[in-house]
Fold this sequence. Notes:
The structure is a single chain. The chain has 722 residues and is of the alpha+beta class. The chain has five domains: 11-96, Helix hairpin bin (Helix Hairpins, Orthogonal Bundle), CATH 1.10.287.610; 116-348, 2-Layer Sandwich (D-amino Acid Aminotransferase, Chain A, domain 1), CATH 3.30.470.30; 353-431, CATH 2.40.50.140; 466-612, Orthogonal Bundle (DNA polymerase, domain 1); 633-702, Rossmann fold. Helix 1 packs parallel to helix 3 (64-80) and helix 2 (34-56) packs antiparallel against helix 3. It is globular.
Amino acid sequence: MAKRGSSPTTGTSQAGTATASTATASTATAGPDALVTERAGELRALIDYHNERYHSLDAPEIPDADFDALVRELQALEADYPELITPESPTQRVGSAPSATFAPVTHAMPMMSLDNAFSRPELEAWAERVARGLDLGDAAAPVGYLCELKIDGVACSLHYEQGRLVLAATRGNGRVGEDITANVAGIGVIPTRLSGSPPPVLEVRGEIYMPLATFAALNEAQEAAGLPRYANPRNTAAGSLRQKDPAITASRGLAFWSYGLGVVEGGPHLESQGSMLAWLASMGLPVNPELRPVATIDEVVAFTDHWMEHRHDLAYEIDGAVVKVDRLARQRSLGSTAKAPRWAIAYKFPPEERTTKLLDIQVSIGRTGKATPFAVLEPVFVGGSTVQLATLHNSDQVALKNVRPGDTVVVRKAGDVIPEVLGPVLTERPADSVEWLFPANCPACHHELVRPEGEAHTFCVNPGCPAQRQTRIEHFASRGGMDIEGMGESRVALFLAEGLIGDAGDIYAINWDRVAQLEGFGQLSIDNLRAAIEASKHRPLANLLVGLGIRHLGPTGAEALARSFADIDALGAASEEELAAIDGVGPTIARSVASWFASDDAAVLIAKFKVAGVNLEGAEPSDQPQVLAGMTVVVTGTLDGFSRDGAEDAIKVRGGKSPGSVSKKTTAVVVGAEPGASKLTKAQDLGVPVLDEAAFVHLLETGELPTPPPAPEVEGEADPST
């Protein structure tokens, strides 16, 4: 089967599935009737069509999950009615025909696909087949597996002779691929000459992928140029790899992980999958570090569970895990089917892309007046939750994505990321479809919407807009602001409707006798909310500044302002030039802050805060020596002597910065137990010093990095399931 995703089908296919299932149940002993035969032919045509879009054109219309559902439906029909199986069926083939853009390459050893498992029972069923194939008798017997991450990229074969790269090819249909040697030679992490003692002939197989940071930067450039965003890293990697101009491929920042061998002449005798990967690494080939040898299927499940939870800690996308019998002799004994090895299986994680109906496009108004279009969707389970709303970013993106109410659309949700509509399935667009137009007036106050020159976003400029007022108060009470637990969207809306509050300052003067008369408010809920509001009065000034929702002012700038002024009055009296001179502020934030303090709303709010006794004083000057001034130190993992916040505070009070991500400007990365893999990997890739806790304490005391930096023993690094 093609390298794709899992789970239920599109709306069109669901109807067909239900009909075919009914027919199957009623005719299981009599052979396929006309309806079942017709459905099988329809599925074969659909799968071939989408295979071509995915493998040859790099322009898939449906997510992997929906494609996999089509294949699984066809497999089920063929299992019930073997007479439906033909040699041309996509269930009997790997991949798709190679593109005519590149010269064909016949693989000396076929590049097979992997069978898939989508649940623990399916994984255990595979383990039982392995145990039987090895005459072990019991699936719980310690077979010895190697667990690897399933990289969401493009399969590739690298052919070396005398250590020199002479040919690179795509998988194609498993037998014939495409010659992409010139393009692959521009991928920096792939060596064109091997180190060590390579054999006379070596074929390495692996996955070419696009790192997430590269993908994000590429999309930023697309947006800046007024071009559509790329859908996902996998498709973008495939398109980058198949550029006619190798210079374009070289500019796309692609990367590669080795995972196996094809033809080898010479070389050492290897006993296991693990030793084979170690041998490849010794010759300079990239090998993913997140490998885990295990004995039993229970340990395999622990590995898959761990990475299902931590998949977004990585600097690249994965869509599952690959489990292989580790001993190569056992692999040879198990052999292969026509299209997949029996000794390996891909365990697919729940899909993060699905198709569903776009019911409507509406516009929300944020605290700054920004008008953001969003999609109202037919509910769909994706990325671990049911999604009904998804962002469409701005009017330009709606036009570029060409989505319309009534469309079948591809929706993506990765972890905690806000769901996003990627684009329509144009082949399913209704004939009477009409282009959606951005409204001219605010949906909340009907005031004219304005798009400032040079900006991508449209705004409601009415300061009295009720939607803006509500979202400003919600933001003020949010965790990043004053952190008032219990003051969420519904309560803010209720208090506004009842006239109990009109702005954020009124939160501190609520008439609790009136609240007690409202439905749903008992004494306990009132006491809890009052206590949360009272506690918020003592938050640092930086929290208040974030909560005010001043445009362009985020947590870092707010902390810089709070450290630089004795109180909010001194901050409000500062000139734009004085604000811009503060490290971490700059002219854009300074202009926005000065403009806010000059407004009538600011004076009213500050007066209310003073009456209520809200803390308006800046941060106390640090008595710590500023040994980390100008340094940026990132903390990841758990430290023994510091909480996460405590470690970051220790850096900041000594004049340093402690952001949440690693970059070329990072001075050092402090690594504790169970660190974020992406931060550690990026630090190693960029050559940023990595410190253990003892070295961190030394840095805090002296401002000096150890020479040379110690390589910390990361707890759990060899066992990612812990």
